[in-house]
Design goal:
Elements: E1 4-8, H1 11-14, E2 22-39, E3 50-68, H2 73-84, E4 90-99, E5 113-121, H3 134-141, E6 145-146, E7 149-150, H4 151-164, H5 170-180
Parallel strand pairs: 1-5
Antiparallel strand pairs: 1-3, 2-3, 2-4, 4-5, 6-7
Helix pairs in contact: 3-5, 4-5
């Protein structure tokens, strides 16, 4: 099998954890980045859940696409499933993404469309938090801690990495402001 793409929109952007040979900005239509998943493991506990990002229906999302050599397919998919499907709140999907023509210009339109592995939230899962406003999301995030650390650190690190890539997420920026308040 040939090379394949993986779409990252949250922590995969700043900590992919798998071998890849190319990274490109990309846009996924039909889904948006959202703190819509209660975290019972990595950034919270069942008793004191945190929030992590999920791809939820609607809008579009700019993230990073990672091209993985075909000979690493089984290894990388196994890694991603162990990382993303801990509680099965995400569903693994092959979705069409549009690659950026030029990673330096900040545009994600007009490039090649390719299929990519992506993890979207299962709205029927008990961990689905739904569409929270920024104030409610900040209240859940503030003080939550899980196996991977503080929930605030996850949100702030994601935002820092998005900003470094020139990707604006106004809602996530508002959540971050409210976490500090």
């Amino acid at each position: 099998m040939g090379d394949f793409w993986v779409f990252g929109y949250g922590s995969l952007i700043w900590r992919p954890g798998f071998a890849h040979v190319e990274t490109r900005r990309a846009r996924l239509h039909g889904y948006r980045r959202s703190l819509c998943v209660y975290s019972f493991v990595h950034r919270g506990t069942r008793e004191r859940p945190g929030l992590v990002l999920g791809l939820d229906r609607g809008g579009s999302c700019i993230g990073l696409a990672f091209r993985v050599p075909g000979d690493l397919r089984n290894e990388v998919i196994t890694y991603l499933r162990e990382r993303e499907l801990v509680t099965n709140v995400y569903r693994e999907r092959m979705l069409s993404i549009r690659l950026d023509n030029d990673a330096t210009n900040g545009e994600t339109d007009g490039g090649e469309t390719v299929p990519a592995v992506a993890y979207v939230v299962d709205r029927a899962h008990e961990q689905y938090a739904g569409a929270l406003d920024a104030a409610d999301a900040a209240t859940v995030v503030r003080g939550a801690v899980g196996q991977s650390g503080k929930n605030e650190d996850y949100v702030l690190s994601t935002l820092e990495h998005l900003e470094a890539l020139g990707i604006r997420d106004h809602w996530l920026e508002e959540v971050a402001k409210r976490i500090g308040s």
